[in-house]
Amino acid sequence: MTGFLHVTARDLAAVAPEIVLSLAGILLILLDAFARPTRTSFPYLSLAALALANVVGAVAPGTWFAGAVETSALTRFVEMIALGGAALAILGGGAALSRDGKNLGEFYALLLWSATGAMLMAKGTDLLVIFIGLELMSIPLYVLAAWYREIPASTEAGMKYFLMGAFSSAILLYGVATLYGRTGTTSLTRLLGLASGPSPFAFDPLVTVGTVAILAALSFKLALVPFHSWAPDVYQGMTTPAVTFLSTVPKAAAAVVLVRLLHAIAPAGPGEPWRPLLSILAVVSILFGNIVALSQRDLKRMLAYSGIAQMGYLAIALATFSRDALEGALVFLAGYLVTNAAAFLTVAALSSGETEPKTLADLAGLGRRNGAAAALLTLSMISLTGLPPTVGFIGKLLVFRSAIDAGLVFLALVGVFGSLVSVGYYLRVVYVLWMKEPTREVPLHEDDVMAGAAWLLLAAGILVFGLFPRGLIDVARAAAQAVGSR
Amino acid sequence: MMTSFLTLDWLGADLLTTLLLLPSLGALVLAFLPKEAKGAILAVAVGFAGLTFAVSVLLGLRFDPATPGLTAFRVSKPWVPRFGIRYELGVDGLAVALILLTTLLTLCVLLVSCGQHLTRLKGYMAAFLILETGMLGSLVALDAILFYVFWEVMLVPMYFIIGIWGGKRRIYAAMKFFLFTMAGSLLMFVAILFVANVHLHRTGLQSFSLVDWTRAVASGAWRLPSGTEALLFWAFALAFLVKVPLWPLHTWLPDAHVEAPTGGSVILAGVLLKLGTYGLLRFAIPLFPGSAVRYTPVIAALALIGVVYGAWVAFAQKDMKKLVAYSSVSHLALVVLGIFAGTAMAVSGAIVQMVGHGLTTGLLFLLVGVLYERRHTREMADYGGIAARVPVTTTLFLISALGSAGLPGLNGFVGEFLILGGVFKVNVLWCAIGATGMVLGAVYLLTLVQKVFWGPDLVPENRTLTDMNGWELAGSLPLIALVVVLGVYPAPLLRLIGPSVDVVVQILRVKGMP
To answer: Which residue from A298, B107, B219, B511 has the highest number of Cβ atoms inside 10 Å of its Cβ?
Structure first.
């Protein structure tokens, strides 16, 4: 632990993006307090901060802070997802928040800090660093969930998310403590050393209990059944641009931590009990999420249940845990970010005042009023269904392929069955958009240049990664290889 | 110079890629046109469909039936090299015949649509063009994943075509179509991934290429346990048999056909159903010949039920479109019977009938659409004795109906005769039951003509009925001409598909088919 006392410049360079975003967040809050007129420039300032963080994030792979922090292609991948997720939330959120007079500096600061936490979580190779990252990621999100504090649904969302989140953090700490008690370390690197050493602890009950506790806490962030119950309420009550971030970035970070942890505990590949456990989580999440989503009429709640199912597909890749599967999981996560952001940003453009319920009926006839918004939402639904030629198809192709290669044909079959069920609700959105007569006029906000830019980016992303997935797959492959290279 | 312009050689694209890109390019151009510019929308849509047709004709002219296997116009570029997924295209005679059918029918549908009243014209035209890319892609793709991509790409535009421009129960019909088709194809998707895994382990090569796969099958390299092979065969076959559709998987078809707008029905019956039988010929049988032979009795039994059931139910219909839809169930069942009979005669007949059914049933739906456009009803009882008022429609309808019923001299006869002749050599009982389909076909089709066009002219609303307009004629006449030409002189078609037939027959014979 003495290493922490000798922090070098290169150590700091490894967390430069985190430093940039933290400082930018503080700056935004100060500006909000002392220079109100600058508020209109907040979106641009935060985008600039994200861009800067992206530039300084390109550091050489290595371990820093005496082995507590790692940079690699994998952490870089999560960094991109976190920065991208925050940027998309800001691009789509600025105008939506302005409409309600909620364009406060805190919104941007909290988003930047949450992204910081997600990035740190992925970089941490010590369970305590991971815990700090997790908390740094989560606490801003609790606040963002209750952003519309005058609306009961939003305060409820904040409260619920906070209580459940705090509970899961406690479980995570309990798991870390148990692992420490048994092995004497919180470092994943040392755990890996012990696990691959002469006396591996494959079936040690304490190690298993500790890992299961951490797994449960991370499943909470992933919203896997049975740790999902917060998701629908939080999605519904949270301000929509922030849901763009919440529904993607924390899940990517949690998934990567889970991968690191499992690799450290069971370097030879997840045998008993991890594979059966993850398989059960996958199957239950896919079936529950898809079937319950069928009965939803609120768009955001429906997307929450769809998200549960989508993370079930991801859990298939985690249960498989081969190199190909991890590669597939990363492609799936990147695709999910683009696709899900497309859905939530279109919803954000339709919302004026969070009081308005965003039910499916509100979308009726949107295809005729705003073809671009309807087309993007349609594209997003097609991608979530997993139909070609979209990035959603590529993600599922890779995940199911790796599962079949590992002999887990059953999981792939459950996956395609879930996809078939999901047609029922994804296609209902398409139906409402194009084939249903509007029941009432919902105002639409088309004058938003930034959201327009985000839309174009997302539509291009969904299609380009779907038609030419090679580049994305290569990047994901390099990242997946970084898991085992320590 | 002209040909190089047509094939986009100046862009560096090959003939098949050009064929695939042109319709989508048309849809893209449409997206940038203003909604109000109806003339421009029609011109662009018909222009691109025409250009696609021209390219496909060029393909047909340049194609040499003697080219072995699927190597003609072969393109093979890495797509996702990491997993051996390739952008691999190629055609044989069977594919060329169906490509020509596809491009011609799409062009005719768009021409007819020009003369009819359609809301949201731009989207309608764009949907058909995207659909055309999907159909053509399924016909030329040699990589299994690429094939699956195009196969699924067809779903969404067809969902829109039925769901937006369809009849009263369009939403239900569109959803049913989507779910049935997707249920089948998702099983096939898992099977494709499984097969690729087997191929990798047995040969050490990562490949989704149909050419590699069939070669491995021929050399027995896969060594699949027969139980596994059976499961894989059924996973593929179900995807295709839903599309055909074979009884009892057919229930989506009457709904989809009745509710779809005219153009949708034409393409559905004319091309989409054929892709089911095409898939059987291209994937299910060559990849799993052992199981194909083993389960021939099962499939033949289902097909025979389908032949009789389809015809019987068609006979009971009062709605013209429903009648034609059920006639498709019957006719396609006969095609499946021909394919699984496995003799050269039966398989050639099946392919000829695929093309023939596309033309005649396409025409029947077009002409029913012509009447519907004017009267907004498809009930036979609402018509009667209108032959004198609409002589041109009557004539064309009669030719199509007779072609569909298998009158000698028209194309339906050639296909049905070859199928039944080929089946006769395999199993006389099958042939006898199959032949009842032909008899019943004549009954219900002639009843249809009789009830609608002949008899007393009693319905007053029909007094104002007008005959086909120029656009509708332009879309129907090429098809009528082919019905007659292929009926009198089918030799070019038979020569075109000959080598493809031999391949299938050879595969089945090796596995003990007579």
So the answer is: B107
Do the Cβ atoms of B149 and A430 come within 8 Å? no
Is the pLDDT score of B426 beyond 70? yes
Q: Whole-angstrom Cα distance, residue A307 to residue A310?
A: 5
By Cβ distance, the residue of A368, A398, A412 closest to B190 is A412
Cα–Cα distance list, A240 to A233, A299, B104 (Å): 12, 11, 48
**Four-CA torsion B273, B276, B282, B283, nearest 10 degrees:** 170
Task: Say how far apart CA A412 and CA A403 lie, in whole Å.
Answer: 6
Half-sphere exposure of B58 (CA within 13 A, CB side): 19
CB contact under 8 A, A423 and B182: yes
Shortest Cα distance, chain B CAs vs residue A359, angstroms: 19
Which residue type does A474 have?
A: D
Tell if the CB–CB gap between B187 and A420 is shorter than 8 Å.
no
Q: Which residues contact B373 (CB under 8 A, 6 or more apart)?
A: B116, B117, B262
Chain length of chain B? 514
String of DSSP letters for A231-263: HHHHHHHS-HHHHHHHTTHHHHHHHHHHHHHHH
Q: Please provide residue B39's backbone torsions phi and psi, each rounded to the nearest 5 degrees.
A: -60, -45
Chain B residue numbers with beta carbons less than 8 Å from the beta carbon of A404 are 190, 193-194, 197
A434:B187 CB<8 A: no
**B192, closest residue in chain A (CA to CA):** A401
Structure tokens at A237: 């009550």
Task: With cut-offs at 50, 70 and 90, classify the pLDDT of residue A384.
Answer: very high
Give contacts of B189 with chain A, Cβ < 8 Å: 400, 416
**Which residue, among A430, A462, A463, would best test binding to B if mutated, counting the most B CBs under 10 Å from its CB?**
A430
Which of chain B's residues have a Cβ under 8 Å away from the Cβ of A474?
82
Chain A positions touching B156 (Cβ under 8 A) are 382, 387
Q: Does A413 touch chain B (CB under 8 A)?
A: yes
Interface confidence: ipTM more than 0.85: yes
Residue B494 has which token pair? 């038979």
Rounded Cα gap, residues B3 and B5, in angstroms:
5
Residue B131 clears pLDDT 60, i.e. is over it: yes
**% pLDDT > 90, chain A:** 41
CA A71 to chain B, closest CA, distance in angstroms equals 25
Virtual CA dihedral for B187, B192, B194, B199, nearest 10 degrees? Answer: 160
Task: Sort A449 into a burial class: Cβ within 10 Å, 0-12 / 13-18 / 19+.
Answer: exposed
The residue written with tokens 């709605």 in the block is: B319
Tokens 């600061």, located at residue: A109
A474 touches chain B (CB under 8 A): yes
Chain A partners of B170 at a C-beta cutoff of 8 Å?
435
Structure tokens given for B253: 């078809």
What letter would DSSP give residue A72?
S
In angstroms, the Cα distances linking A257 to A214, A261, A378, B419 are 10, 6, 32, 62
CB atoms within 10 A of CB B236: 28
Tokens 């699949």 label which residue? B224
Smallest Cα–Cα separation from B159: which of A381, A4, A459?
A: A381
Mutant choice from B36, B170, B190 vs A, greatest count of A C-beta within 10 A: B190
Spatial separation of the C-alpha atoms in residues A371 and A375, rounded to whole Å? 6
Rounded to two decimals, the pTM is 0.92
Q: How far apart are CA B179 and CA A251, in angstroms?
A: 30
Chain A: closest CA distance from residue B23 (Å)? 16
One-letter amino acid of B240: F
Burial class (CB in 10 A: 0-12, 13-18, 19+), B248: exposed
Report the pLDDT value the prediction gives residue A146, as an integer from 0 to 100.
86
pLDDT in tens, A198-217: 766 666 888 888 889 999 99
Residue A411, CB-side half-sphere exposure with 13 Å CA sphere: 31
